[in-house]
């Protein structure tokens, strides 16, 4: 097993681009790869463009949870579909992606948080989930090796995990095997708009003619849309993580309290991260969207935003990053092939010490790797998955707000049906593009902010 920072020196997927495709997908993360895979299964000629490497950004840097627990009400049915999609894809992969039902536990630091869990469990009951509350006494049996005192927990036994830096590249190989023209190290620079409709995509390797484009570019989506005069209140926030070496098993599933998350990996180590802690580097987009994010900033929850100095050079929201460029000149996407932020080592040291304190039976906790990723977030903590009315022919799937890995295969299937006019199968009202412009108050629900 390799970690996200040990990327192959050469692209795995290359070759000549076709002159024309039915659909061009921009972005080689879990959402883009899944969309390409399901579009190809519908018999379409699909090109998938990735400026760097498949899953080299947030899709390989996340916690590896595939959960329904704690989801926004709008996403619970989609998350349930995603779990079945992961199972089906794992069957095809022959078990290589590490998909397992291990259960997800949310640990309450105090009685107020425990009460919030009870509120979400009412949603779980309505959807016939196996989620339930574990009181303080029973929690000692649930985590018998933990030397900590929590007020209770919410537990969903059917929730799952997978190994991100293995799983998403594996999905890319599936897509290529199925006939997707997958090209790494090839940035999409701009849409070709003729007569008010998409007619192609300008790439660094030339133009591809197409009537339909899917934008699933993660932290870069806002910048790409801005180039075409469309603004969404998406920001990119840094989340740091680390991987321990192999340890005695202290807990076999995934869990988090208000400051720490941990998950047992297939290689016997743990992925350990600060929970509820994200860092926002200040740039033009953060100033422009400040009012949209006030409800999130003032209401601690899934993302406690901590403001940092100016966005580093080359980042999507850096002050020096161009917002306009010509189709025949180098774009910001080529100047930074892989968004590879430095992790917050001080914060990781804190959670390493806390993990050791909670689980002294783990012994000497050695760290094999530390990394960070940039999460594409929206103010209401749910994505936008919709046609872009201002740019006919473009479908966008972005702003997955830290949920993308687990739910990505379902959104890929949904995007495929949005493109082809098939049966989407879910109510996407809460994920519509127009909510950014029609006066809707962009506030996280109580469920999504747990």
Topology:
Blueprint: E1 23-26, H1 30-41, E2 46-49, E3 65-66, H2 76-93, E4 100-101, E5 104-108, H3 111-126, E6 132-135, H4 136-142, E7 152-156, E8 160-161, H5 164-177, E9 181-183, E10 188-194, E11 197-203, E12 206-209, E13 213-215, H6 221-227, E14 235-244, E15 254-256, E16 260-264, E17 270-274, E18 278-282, H7 284-288, H8 290-298, E19 305-310, H9 332-335, H10 345-358, E20 367-377, E21 384-387, E22 394-398, H11 404-420
Parallel strand pairs: 1-2, 1-13, 2-9, 5-15, 13-22, 18-19
Antiparallel strand pairs: 3-8, 4-8, 5-7, 6-7, 10-11, 11-12, 14-17, 14-18, 14-20, 15-16, 16-17, 21-22
Helix pairs in contact: 1-5, 1-11, 2-11
Brief digest:
With 450 residues, the protein is an alpha/beta fold. Helices cover 27% and strands 24% of the residues. The chain has one domain: 3-Layer(bba) Sandwich (FAD/NAD(P)-binding domain).
Question: In words, what does this structure look like?
Answer:
It is a single chain. The chain has about 450 residues and is α/β, with parallel strands linked by helices. Helices cover about 25% and strands about 25% of the residues. The protein has helices at about 30-40, 75-95, 110-125, 135-140, 165-175, 220-225, 285-290, 290-300, 330-335, 345-360, 405-420, and strands at about 25, 45-50, 65, 100, 105-110, 130-135, 150-155, 160, 180-185, 190-195, 195-205, 205-210, 215, 235-245, 255, 260-265, 270-275, 280, 305-310, 365-375, 385, 395-400. Strands 5, 6, 7, 14, 15, 16, 17, 18, 19 and 20 form a 10-stranded mixed β-sheet that branches. A hairpin with a 2-residue loop joins strand 10 and strand 11. The mean pLDDT is about 95.
């Amino acid at each position: 097993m390799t970690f996200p920072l040990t990327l192959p020196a050469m692209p795995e997927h290359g070759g000549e681009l076709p002159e024309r495709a039915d659909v061009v997908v921009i972005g080689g993360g879990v959402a883009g790869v899944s969309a390409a895979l399901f579009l190809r299964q519908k018999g379409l000629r699909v090109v998938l463009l990735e400026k760097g490497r498949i899953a080299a950004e947030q899709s390989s840097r996340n916690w590896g949870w595939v959960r329904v627990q704690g989801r926004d009400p709008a996403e619970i049915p989609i998350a349930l579909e995603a779990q079945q999609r992961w199972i089906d894809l794992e069957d095809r992969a022959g078990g290589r992606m590490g998909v397992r039902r291990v259960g997800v536990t949310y640990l309450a630091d105090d009685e107020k948080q425990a009460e919030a869990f009870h509120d979400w469990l009412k949603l779980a009951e309505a959807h016939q989930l196996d989620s339930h509350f574990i009181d303080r006494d029973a929690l000692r049996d649930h985590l018998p090796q933990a030397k900590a005192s929590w007020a209770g927990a919410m537990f969903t036994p059917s929730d799952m995990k997978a190994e991100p830096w293995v799983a998403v590249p594996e999905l890319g190989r599936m897509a290529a095997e199925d006939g997707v023209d997958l090209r790494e190290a090839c940035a999409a620079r701009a849409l070709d708009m003729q007569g008010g409709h998409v007619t192609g995509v300008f790439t660094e390797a030339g133009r591809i003619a197409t009537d339909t484009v899917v934008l699933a570019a993660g932290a870069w989506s806002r910048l790409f849309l801005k180039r075409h005069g469309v603004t969404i209140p998406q920001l990119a926030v840094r989340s740091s993580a680390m991987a321990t070496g192999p340890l005695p098993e202290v807990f076999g599933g995934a869990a988090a309290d208000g400051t720490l998350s941990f998950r047992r990996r297939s290689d016997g180590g743990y992925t350990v991260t600060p929970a509820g802690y994200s860092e926002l580097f200040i740039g033009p987009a953060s100033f422009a969207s400040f009012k949209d994010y006030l409800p999130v900033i003032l209401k601690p929850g899934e993302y406690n935003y901590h403001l940092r100095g100016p966005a580093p050079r080359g980042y999507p929201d850096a002050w020096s990053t161009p917002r306009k460029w010509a189709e025949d000149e180098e774009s910001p996407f080529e100047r930074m092939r892989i968004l590879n932020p430095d992790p917050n080592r001080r914060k990781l040291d804190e959670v390493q010490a806390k993990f050791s304190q909670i689980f002294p039976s783990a012994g000497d906790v050695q760290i094999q790797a530390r990394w960070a990723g940039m999460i594409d977030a929206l103010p209401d903590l749910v994505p936008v998955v919709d046609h872009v009315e201002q740019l006919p022919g473009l479908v966008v799937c972005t702003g997955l707000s830290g949920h993308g890995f687990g739910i990505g295969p379902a959104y890929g299937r949904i995007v495929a049906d949005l493109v082809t006019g098939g049966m989407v199968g879910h109510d996407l009202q809460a994920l519509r593009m127009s909510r950014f412009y029609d006066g809707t108050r962009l506030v996280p629900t109580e469920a999504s902010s747990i």
